[in-house]
Give the backbone structure.
Amino acid sequence: MARMKFLCDAERCIECNGCVVACKNENEVPWGVNRRRVITINDGKPGERSISIACMHCSDAPCMAVCPVDCFYQTAEGIVLHNKDMCIGCGYCFYACPFGAPQFPQNGAFGTRGKMDKCTFCAGGPEPDGSEAEFTKYGRNRIAEGKLPICAEMCATKALLAGDGEVVANIYRERIIMRGFGAGAWGWARAYPGTPGR
Amino acid sequence: MNTWLWLAEGPLFWLSLSVFGLGVAWKLTGLLLLGGPRAQPTPRGSPAGGAVYTILRHFVPRRVFLPGAGLHVLAGYAFHLGLFILLGFAAPHVAFFGERLLGVSWPTLPQWGFIVAAEFAFAGLIILWAMRISEPIQKLVSRPADHAATWLTFLVMLSGCLALEEAHVSLRALHMTLVDAWLFWFPFSPLMHTFTFLFSRGFTGATYGRRGVGL
Amino acid sequence: MGLGSGLSGHSRTLNDDLVVAPHGCGALPGFAIPVCAGGRKSMNWPNGELHGRLGLLLLAGVFLILQAVFVPAEQAHAQQLDTPPNTLDQKTGPAGIWRDLRRGKPARETRPFTPPVQAIQIEGEEWRKVRNEWIRPIGGGVLLFAFGGIILFALFVRRVPIEGGRSGRPVSRFTRYQRAVHWFTASVFILLAISGLILLFGRTILIPIIGKSAFAAVASAAKQGHNLFGPVFIVALLLLLPAFFRHNRPFWQDLAWLARGGFLSRREPPSGKFNGGEKLWYWLLTVFGLIIAGSGIFLDFPAIAPALVYLQFSHILHAVAAVVLITFAIGHAYLGSAGVEGVLEGMTTGCVDENWARQHHPLWLEELEAKGEKTARGCPRAVDPDGGDVPAAREAAEEAAS
């Protein structure tokens, strides 16, 4: 079984935000929720880099570990999903996530959070694949259609790669070799510790 | 789960509401039929005026009573005002009474307004109950029905707040069931003070008003 | 990087730095309009021409100095631009970027009007470890010990009886206000404790019993209830703590009371109105209660927390304080009711039996008698709530009968 992973090549990202727009559009993400974001460090200085961040679908997902209602589950392909019907909006997943992936649609004066929303690797949720309920709650299920996440598909420079971890790693390795300088697989050591393929 | 909700918001609700309406009307009619004193001398003042005056005047305790009764009055107002604000203006309630029952809508509380009103209501109710079980006179005059009324009202409020996320049918159904029980029992319980306070204050006021004495 | 680079990224040139102001006038920074001081209206030199060679030399000198200062910086900046940034340079190459990100260097999100973001925060992993590997197992163990311990205690340690039986003479101990705020605080505490424990342990204990779906409803109710009653508890604490402050000042003999085993010892050391154990509970409630209240405010209203680490830290403080308070509350509740004969009526009726007072709080009774403040005002008649024999009342009845 393929182990799905994201990789954002910081050397190629041009901060075009195509991934952000694609995700918002395809999944009809409500206003204020940002499943995918592009951030820039060293802005305006040598060494300026942009990176596209969303849920990394970690191997030992911290969100899954701290959820009081255990509403997360990980598919056979390693995609971390959650059940919005069970979510109580406590925010613990946000406290734990290294990448700030969980998003909450409401934030009233008393911090009344609605149900958590996050990147689903375009794999929907626990509702039946491709159903109306699944689309309304979780967005498009492209994985069930045999496709890859729309953000990576739309990336103008192929900075954002998504798919089978082995394939992604191989692509990236080739790039490093061609470039002739060190690897900076952003976030991999944090998200996928341990043996390859996990 | 849906059956339970359908029952609690459907047949059981209508039954309870009818018992509430008919029961209150019956009890109040009974009170009115008791009538007033028979032989009356010529009134020196206005009974009606006295009644209205007393009803309004007794909303504020006399200063001499404040050292002992201050906390009681404060807690009482916190509870009642909080509860009425919640009942009348909380979004789920407006949706239920207004849109469902009456077909009209009116402005609702923002989320934080609901929380503040609920906290005042709970604080008031719990303090009132704590006083009821601590003060010697109140302990003496409180009957099981008084405690039951406090507890049932508390449970209705609690279940409502527990269902605040509005995401689980079971929690909403629990709240509705308790509301139905509360409505059903209302006419036969101390909760009738909601209406009878007008009668008792009014009667006292009328008596003194007739004698031309201000209260 | 030198003077050549700024946040905006473009280099400053000599033109930006030198503002040649007409004589007598100056240009204030930021203002385009020259501000003239004095009455000079003319923009020209006094003679309408530069002052000969001296002026030229002066100008050349100024330029030379400026060149010496700015040009090396310019060159260094240019050097940096020529060198490709995509090197194994520890600072600006990929390894450096990764290190910066891991250490929480703020990055700018493309979306406008958003504060700088931390691309990776590892404090969350620390928080997860503390919560899941320390607080839950250790806290759970402590609570199990508390619950189990009190049950064993109740079964095997007999209820402490009143020495010499009841006298039938009541002594006023707590005022109406003290009793009311005590029960107010206790009720809210119980609601918060139950809902809080559901949120902390429900996943391990309740899900196997009632399943995930049902538990989701229970947990939702627990979270809503907990968040709602939190501020009410703060009000209750603020009313309770001053109401019981007066006799709770700690003294050395309170430590001695605790060291000697308190009420468990054969000869209980004498105490004032509150013994060492009661004072310990009061001060634990004050300290941990305030910690729980403060941390609870951040957790309930996250918008006021300046950063995520405040929420993570608050959660840890909140959970630890909660475990401590619940543990001691269990002991307090037991010892204040079933554990000791004659104690509960103090907090329900406000009055205690005189023999009870003499046995457990002799110094307090002596103080009252000395000041003439001992009273039975507001106390119910001397009836034993346990339905047992009340010697003094029985004697009085026998006297009346004979």
